Amino acid sequence: MALYVQKFGGSSVADAECMQRVAQRVYDTKQEGHSVVVVLSAMGKTTDNLINLSKQVNPQPDEREMDMLLATGEQVSVSILAMALHALGAEAVSMTGPQAGIATDSAHTKAKIMSIEPARILENLEKGRIVIVCGFQGRSPTDDIATLGRGGSDTTAVALAAALKADRCQIFTDVDGVYTADPRIVKQASKLTTIAYDEMLELASLGAKVLQSRSVEFAKKYGVELEVLTSFDRIPGTVVKEEVEDMENIVVRGVAVDKNQAKVTIQRVPDRPGVAATLFKELAAANVNVDMIVQNVSEHGHTDISFTVPRDEINRTRATVDGLLESIGSAGATYDVDTAKVSIVGVGMRSHSGVAYKMFEALSAHKINVEMISTSEIKISVVIRSAYADQAMQVLHDAFDLDKINEQAS
Amino acid sequence: MALYVQKFGGSSVADAECMQRVAQRVYDTKQEGHSVVVVLSAMGKTTDNLINLSKQVNPQPDEREMDMLLATGEQVSVSILAMALHALGAEAVSMTGPQAGIATDSAHTKAKIMSIEPARILENLEKGRIVIVCGFQGRSPTDDIATLGRGGSDTTAVALAAALKADRCQIFTDVDGVYTADPRIVKQASKLTTIAYDEMLELASLGAKVLQSRSVEFAKKYGVELEVLTSFDRIPGTVVKEEVEDMENIVVRGVAVDKNQAKVTIQRVPDRPGVAATLFKELAAANVNVDMIVQNVSEHGHTDISFTVPRDEINRTRATVDGLLESIGSAGATYDVDTAKVSIVGVGMRSHSGVAYKMFEALSAHKINVEMISTSEIKISVVIRSAYADQAMQVLHDAFDLDKINEQAS
C-alpha cells in the first residue's frame, strides 16, 4: 500500500463528464489499496472567464483581490470531484489550500509555498478518505488567500507529495508523457520511460511545456518521484526522477526547439572591462530575459557580442541597446528575428565525448548553418535560421537514434 | 458620520455593469463621510448554475461539499466589487465569511451564525477602507465553510450590523420597499415609510417575500434598524424598526395573500383527548408544515378538525391522514386545493376594536365567503376560495383605506 498524490489539470477536469472520469481513476487507485491525495486545477476555461470578468470592472485589478477571485475556480473543482467520488461510493473530502495547511508568502498572484502543515490531510487519510486539495493556492501570513500563479497546481502537488512523503506524484495532463522530440514535428519521436530531473529541467526551459520548471525543481530538491501521464488513457507515462548511473548510457535523451528567439549582435565593442556588465544590467532593468550570450574573440581591441532574447521582447531590447551604443563605443547593432534555438539534452553527455562534434556534423551534412553555440554540462544549444528549425530537430533525432531510445535503455 | 451595512442581493449584482452601479452607490455613501460594510450575494444565476453542475455528478450531493461549492459564488462577488471600487479610487478590501470572523454551527446548508469576531473588519474600517463581506457563509467549528441557506445574505448583513453596532442595515433588492399590498394586484398599494418588526414578520411569513423572516427576527432581537430599498433608483425605501407608540395609529398596515394553500377537513372525530396530538405529530413526522388549525364546537361527542397546509404538500398530507382515519375513529376527510389565505396585519389591532368585524363585513359585502378564521395579536387571517383571492386583497385594501396610509401616519 502506497501513498499517491494525483494532480489533474484544467483540460482533465473541463466538465462534469471529465470529473466523473477523473473520479473513476482516483477511485480505482484507492481500490487497489493505496492512499490518494488529489490536487486539482480549475475546470476548463474557468480561470480565463474569471479574468475576463475582472477586466470588465477594472483594467488593472489588485493582486490580492485577483487571488480572492481566482481561488474560487479550484474550490469548485474539488467540491465537484468529492461529490463525483461519493456517487461511486468512495469516502472523500475536499479542502481549500488554507484548509489543507498550505502556507505561502505574501506575494499575491505569484506566491511561494513556505510550509505545509499536513495534520488535517493525514487525519483524513487515516480515516480511509480520499483527500482532494485545491491546487495553486494557500494561506498568506495575513490570513489572505494567495495563489501560486499559473501552473502552480503542479507545484502544489509536488509540495504535498514532499510534505506527506508520498511514494509518487502523478501529474495527469493532456499528453501521455515526455517525448524525445515534439511528436507533432518528429513522427518517430519516442516516449521516454524515465528522465532525470536535470534533463527535464533543461527540456522545460527549452519550451517542452509538459511540466512547469518550478515543480521539477521542487521535486528534485525534495526527491519526489514524478510521473507525467495522460488522464484520457490507462497507459504508463514518463517517470521523472533522481539520476541513476544507468541513465548515462543514453547520451542524448531529447531534442528541443525554441522558435521564440531573436538574435542581437553588437558590433565592434571596445574590449575593456565593464562593457558587458553595463549592457546586461540595463537589459535586466528593462525586463528583458536574455538567454544565450556569446562573445567572439577580440580583434585589435574590439569584439562582437551576440545574445538571444524572446522574440516578443525585441522592441524593448532594441530601445535599450540603441540607447547604449554610443556610451559603450559600439559601431552599431543588428537585430534578427528569424532565428531558432535547437538543443540536445542528456546526462550521458557528462561521460561521453564527441557529442557536440556529432551534432554539428549532422547539421552541416544537411547544410544547416550554426550561428551561435552554447553548452552546459548536459545540454548543447545552437542558434540557426528559424526556417530550418523543424528539419534540424528531425536531423538530430535521427543522428542520435532517438527513435530506438527505449531499446538502448537498460 | 455613521456606520452603514449595505447588502446587495443577486439581481443587484447580476453582471459587471450591475457591479459598477453598486460600486458607485457604495462609494457615494463613503464619500458622504460614512463608514461602509458591504454584504453581497452571488452574482445573478451563479448559485443555480453551481447547483446544476453538482447534480450532474451526484443527484444527492453531500451538504458539506455543497457548502464548499456554493460559497465560491459570494467570493467571486466580493472580489469583483472590490476591484470595481478600486477603479473609482476607493480603498476597499473583500473578505470571505471566515475571514470576516463569522462563526457558525455545523449544520451545513442551513447553518446558524453563532458569533462574530469583528476585529479584522474594524481594523480595516479604521484604516478608512470599505469592507466587503461574503454573505450567506461562515466558518464552522471544524474549520469548514458552512452556508446559511438561501436568503442567508440578509441574515449575514443583520448579524454584522448587530456585531458592529451599525447605525443602519440597508437591504438593497429589486423592489423599492414594503407595500401595503402586492402592487401587481392592488394598483393603489402604497409604499410604507416605516413598519414594525412584528408586522414585517407576519407579512414575511404570509408570503410577502421582501425580507427573510430569519433576518427580521435577528434585527428585532438585536435592535438593528433595517431599510429595504431598491438598488436601481435613488429613492428612500421602507424602514423596519422597533415599534413606537405612534405606529398604533395605523390599525392595518398591510394585506397579504397566500395562494399556496390547501384545506383539509377531518370529519366527525371523537372528541376525546389525544386525537389532535396524534394527528399533528404524524403530520410533523411526514414533514408537513401545518399552518392554520381550526376545531369546531363539539356536537354529540364528535367534532370536525380543519387545517391548512402548503398546496404542494397535499399528497404527503393525504397519505398520512388517510392512514390515520380508522385509528382515530373519523368518518372521513376532505381535501381542498382551491383555497387561499388572506390576512391583514397591523400592530394597531392591539389597541383598536372592531377590526375583525370590519374585515368580515367588507368580504361579505362582496359575497366572498369566509371558510376558516385564525387570529393573532396583530393579524387576522381568513381562508376563502382561491378564485376570490385577488379580489379580497383589493376589497380589504379599500376597506382599511390603505391607499391613504401615508396621510394617516404621524
Write the layout of secondary structure elements.
2 copies of one chain form a homodimer.
Chain A: E1 3-8, H1 16-31, E2 35-40, H2 46-57, H3 63-87, E3 92-95, E4 102-104, E5 113-116, H4 119-126, E6 130-134, E7 137-139, E8 145-147, H5 152-163, E9 168-173, E10 194-196, H6 197-205, H7 213-222, E11 226-230, E12 238-241, E13 254-270, H8 275-285, E14 293-295, E15 302-310, H9 314-328, E16 332-345, H10 355-365, E17 372-376, E18 379-385, H11 389-399, H12 405-408
Parallel strand pairs in A: 1-2, 1-9, 2-6, 3-6, 9-11, 10-12
Antiparallel strand pairs in A: 4-5, 7-8, 11-12, 13-15, 13-16, 14-15, 16-18, 17-18
Helix pairs in contact in A: 1-3, 2-3, 5-7, 6-7, 8-9, 10-11
Structural notes for this entry:
Chain A has 410 residues and is an alpha/beta fold. Helix content of chain A is 35%, strand content 26%. The first copy, chain A, has helices spanning 16-31, 46-57, 63-87, 119-126, 152-163, 197-205, 213-222, 275-285, 314-328, 355-365, 389-399, 405-408; strands at 3-8, 35-40, 92-95, 102-104, 113-116, 130-134, 137-139, 145-147, 168-173, 194-196, 226-230, 238-241, 254-270, 293-295, 302-310, 332-345, 372-376, 379-385. In chain A, the strands form four sheets. An eight-stranded mixed sheet of chain A has the order 3-6-2-1-9-11-12-10, with helices on both faces. In chain A, helix 5 runs parallel beside helix 7 (213-222), helix 8 packs antiparallel against helix 9 and helix 10 packs across helix 11 (389-399). The longest helix of chain A has 25 residues, at 63-87. Chain A is globular and about 75 Å long. The mean pLDDT of chain A is 92.
